[in-house]
Amino acid sequence: MQTVTRFAGAGLAEVKCILWVQAFDAETKQMMLAMFSLGDVLAGAAVPTARLSASASVLLQLPEQRRSDFDHAGFSVWQLSNDLYSGTEGCRAWTEREGRNGSLSFQEMVSLVPALLLDPGPSQLCIDMCAAPGSKSQQLLQIMRAKAGKAEPEGLVVSADVSAQRACLALYRVLSNAESPASCAALANAKDFPHMLDPTGARLEFGGILADVPCSGDGTARKNGQIWRSWARKEALGLHSLQRNILLRALHLMPPGGTVVYSTCSLNPVENEAVVLWCLRKWRSKENVDVELLDTPALCLAKCGISAAPGLDRWVVPSPQRGGPLFSSWQEVPEELKGDGVAGTSLRQEMFADGCDDIGGFCAPKEMARCARLYPHRGDYGGFFVAVLRKGFPPAGTPAVKLTPIKMGDRGAGKKGNRGHPLMTSQFGPVRREDPWWAEIVKFFGVNAAWAEERLQKGLFFWQRLHGNEFPERLLLVSEAVAKLWAAVPAAPGRQPAWVRLGVILFEQLPKGFQTQAALSRWRISSEGAPRLGAVLGSRRACLPAGQLLAMLRAEHRQMDLELFSPQLLQLLVNARPEEGGTRYDCGAVLLGVEGLGLPGWETCWLPAVLTPRFLRLLVDDDASEGLAEAMEEDAKQQIPLSKQQVHPAPVSADHPAPPPGCWAGLAKAAHELCSR
């Protein structure tokens, strides 16, 4: 059993710094008493994403851990204590695997709050300003999908991050699992994110902005022992300027009627109330459009079912030096600690509730009670802070501010010769009807003409090129809002976001050197695109008996000899024709499906594969294949014998609604059964 006693080696001075609010905050005193008496430490919240996966057995055994209060947002949430997470046989390994596979998002319960409070509509334009690793962006996309119903969301979520490594690795992977045309990722500095203008000069209005800013993370001290050893005053104080610059930029980007959600996983008022208070004072002192701080505790209760404490209206600020004094007002700070020096080495007037003299009267500290603090002892979750702000409308007759788009040359994300991750060389461009690669894909896979033409006319197909190559590596599908954003230009020079990902990948190139001579086309179906293409490909696809697909998943290299498949199946997949010495097949990518899994609303699962001269091979990774195999084995216990299921072509319809991307069997069934109890 894990308890907070494992942090007993923390220095008392630093513990005191983490808890400097205790001088004025009775809630913090209660929190500490509760923390040191708790037997368990929260391991996290299992949140099935759009790609539901794996065996239901683990979660079905834990119905009492399900948080049905999140169902209204389209989330299926299980809250697991550390004791259960580590002590239940197979639970930890299963959860970690499904997290890698994208079936689950494993995080603190309170991390769900910002996306639920922002609550975007299906056609809204949103920015996640500090997105990596991407869980909150994924939640925003999930909410938009739930509200769109059977249709695709028309809006977008821009997932921005200042780190190239985070944007190209963690963030890219999470958005790949989200499988949403409304997603896009950019390398961009949150405090400098530009106004984006369409070709007519009209401003793109980001009606929902999430600013989950970098913070000291002291709210995670209950589960993260490293915080107790590494936390320092200088780091916490040094983040204040960055945090307020990000929030102030969000207020400028927000259109009238728009919403900004500011959040941290910290209980430090210098990173929380002090930031919100200064930004409101700064904004109201210069702008004629008001920004209102909404009653965030009430919103937390209404939208999340979480009881939150109000924000603080007074607090203390520590000296940067370890073990130094705490100050309750700017007047108490000695002159040698005042100034605008290196971040974390001095104190600034805006860190205090009394604030700066010139703008202090524009927002009273008592207004900070409308912020929300989430304390661990109140709900068995981590410490968290959140504030919801909404911009009003300008007075009647106020002239609109005219922004002029700058002239742009190449709007691609990268340039040939860029070092680092290959995605930093990405170049994106719309698909044109005359492109030879487009004609090849349509002919080779028999893409439904009506489905393709509708999206082609709207400009929803994009090529992605890498390393400056003329030949594209991927074919992408995006929402109308993402296409519009790509065509937009910034209102200020030097601030063009570097796009590393747009929408969902439908097709991509086979690996270099793989079946170079045998494959008739180098294009293959991507894992994230397979569910969308099952209903629109007229050739090179078929549904297998579940038993045969399960055998492939369990086979070495996930491949089986062609002699083990029926001629009927191979004829459906490819143009099989007899020749002297045997049968000849048109080798290359194919799409395999399995039907009859007994899932409500999901009868077919599609997987990418490739046909070689000797084998039929699935193109899925280890985690995905293991999760699906377990799901099929679980489902087979309750279904008809696998041998009775027949091979047959699946229907093609241009009007077929987009299925839930990548939905595997077990977890969807678990959610359905638990919700109906």
TrEMBL record:
Keyword annotations of the record: Methyltransferase, RNA-binding, S-adenosyl-L-methionine, Transferase
UniProt GO BP: RNA methylation
SUPFAM superfamilies per the UniProt record, alphabetical: S-adenosyl-L-methionine-dependent methyltransferases
Coiled-coil annotated spans: none
Domain of life: Eukaryota
Membrane-traversing stretches: none
The keyword Oxidoreductase is assigned to this record: no
Residues involved in S-adenosyl-L-methionine binding: C130, A131, A132, P133, G134, S135, K136, D161, D192, D212
Active site: C265
Start and end residues of each SAM-dependent MTase RsmB/NOP-type domain: 33-392
GO molecular function, one term: RNA methyltransferase activity
InterPro entries: MeTrfase_RsmB-F_NOP2_cat, MeTrfase_RsmB-F_NOP2_dom, RCMT, SAM-dependent_MTases_sf
UniProt-annotated stretches for the region Disordered: 404-426, 630-659
This protein's record includes keyword Transferase: yes
PANTHER family in the record: NCL1 YEAST -RELATED NOL1/NOP2/FMU SUN DOMAIN-CONTAINING (PTHR22808), RNA CYTOSINE-C(5)-METHYLTRANSFERASE NSUN2-RELATED (PTHR22808:SF1)
Similarity annotation: Belongs to the class I-like SAM-binding methyltransferase superfamily. RsmB/NOP family.
Name of this chain's protein: SAM-dependent MTase RsmB/NOP-type domain-containing protein
Organism in which the protein naturally occurs: Polarella glacialis
